[in-house]
Specification:
Blueprint (H helix, E strand, L loop, with lengths): L4 E4 L9 H15 L6 H6 L5 H8 L8 H16 L8 H10 L3 E5 L4 H11 L7 E3 L11 H10 L6 E5 L2 H9 L4 E4 L6 H5 L5 E3 L2 H8 L12
Parallel strand pairs: 1-2, 1-4, 2-3, 4-5, 5-6
Helix pairs in contact: 1-4
Amino acid sequence: MSYDLIVFDWDGTLMDSMAAIVKAIQQSALDLGIRYPSEAEARSVIGLGLIEAFQLVWPELERERYPDLVNAYRQNYLAKDGDLEFFPGVLEMLAELKEMGKTLAVATGKSRIGLERAMARTNAAEFFTTTRTGDDCFSKPNPQMLEEIMTETGFSFENTLMVGDSIHDLLMANAAKVPAIAVTYGAFSKDVLKTAHPVAICDSVAQLRQILKQKGTTKDAKSC
């Protein structure tokens, strides 16, 4: 059985933005005078919606301070956003998949305005039939993003594949009964990603590109 609907996470899967996200989280802590998180703490929440991420990084923080934290983060990330690029090979991979007749979508914890800005800057919108963001749905790992994408495009979970770099992406896929491919060049290590039982684990875009362009990709795939 082939996967006809392929849903990608954005940050850390398509776009090389991990360092910028970590620095934006850490700088926001300095701006607000709150506890400075380690790189590991900041990376562990990549893929979540902002509020959910901040609740995990700063569980001790009063909820009334979250709006200021969100604003600080967005300003700090926006300062770096214009310099971010796709991982090498991503655009070629997306073009190949479209030529194969695959339906492509995005499920991301980014804000709607953030995703649309990134898509416009990279001329990537043409590749994707639909998208869901942290503004549209419950945060990962809730399956709402995938469920809405499948409903809109008319594909079943059996014909859908999720591709992501975070444990949150994979757990969302599990909750939606959708098979997933994990990539290790983003936010999470291979050992962590393995715990969610992806059908394949890829260490580079080149490996991911190779497995996705195989028309016979099935749930039996074990590695790239």
